[in-house]
Amino acid sequence: MAEIKNTTGRTARTIAMKGGGYYSQRTRGAKDVIDNASGMLVEAAGAIDPPDPGRPIVLADFGAADGGTSENAIRRCIEQIRARFPDNQIQVSYTDLPSNDFSALFKNLLGVGPQAANTYLTDIEDVFVSACGIGFHRQLLPDVSLDIGFSATAMHYISEKPCPIENHVHMVGASGETLAAYAEQARQNWNDLLLARANELRPGGRLVMLNFGIDEEGRYLGNTGGINMFDTFADIWRQMRDAGVISETEFVNTSFPQYYRTVEEFCAPFTDNDSPVYQAGLRLVSAKTGVVGCPYRRAFDEAGSAMSAREFAESYVPTLRSWSEAVFLSGLDETRPMEERHQIVDTFYQRYKDRVASDPSGHAMDYVHCYLAVKKTADQP
Ligand SMILES: C[S@@+](CC[C@H](N)C(=O)[O-])C[C@H]1O[C@@H](n2cnc3c(N)ncnc32)[C@H](O)[C@@H]1O
User: Fold this and answer.
1) pTM (2 d.p.)
2) How remote is the CA of residue 30 from the centroid of ligand 1, in Å?
3) For residue range 106-130, what is the model confidence (pLDDT) as tens digits?
């Protein structure tokens, strides 16, 4: 089996979501994606094999961030499980990188986070939660212990960047050997993380994965026909380089450790009967792509003259910042005082806001996902 690398050190710092509950508060679109697809989790709960009497039913959310965005969907899944198996206890395991703000996760689950609320943990008896701060490219749960694995908007993160991206900040702007190196890294990571899930799952268990990707029309996050968000990131960062605010080295060091797979790339391990993933018993139940519109853009369009372009920019750019800030911070030279690095990044997002405010047309972060349902065959593979 291929060596499985942990996502540690600099790469992990690059990935961190903004903490303190900021992530869930500013990422309504990610919650919309999960809520819209919560039927897939209910379906999975309706399809798993019955557990042994007295054994808990185990769910896991891989790459959960602060848990706020998936709380409602997991509640629906738990309710379905409880309806089918009223006597079994339920365990929910949240996983993310060590750099994740797990404190915000537990506060959200207890309903004492930024938005006080009832949650499945406060409302439903015999449900237990735990967390694991280790990356999902390796096995995180014991063999044959997991009933339903869930992941949303997380598995596009690769364990390490294979090379710099010379004139852009994301693989969507790469080509040639650079793009090929990212594709190979992502292929290995996808195989490794699926094999890890195959070991964890019980026969009859399910995976529901909502992954950022490139759809059949070439669309991806923030690129659905209007202004390309990643090109805008690269353009503003380039302008700051050209103006001497950041150095050439800092520009080149700034890139997202991400890869947006195509549907073919997602499905490849399942369509090849000889692949280790297929041999480990994983079978594709369904694969489809879908676009969930940017909620900030929708609110602006619906508001008409009641919302100014500046107000739109002020509401929209923080959602980009919630997941991208760490990338721009980590590209900056570590000899710069931290305060200076934060000022540079503040300037960067201010310029993005100014650009949107001066002409809001075409700005939107629509979510493009590949929705995958997978089962572990109960037959001997
Ligand atoms: C955009 S957030 C999505 C969070 C949440 N699942 C949602 O849909 O709102 C991506 C999350 O994946 C996590 N992540 C990235 N790479 C990871 C890895 N190798 N293992 C576990 N989590 C990872 C990040 O730390 C982050 O919390």
Assistant:
1) 0.92
2) 11
3) 999 999 966 678 999 999 999 999 9
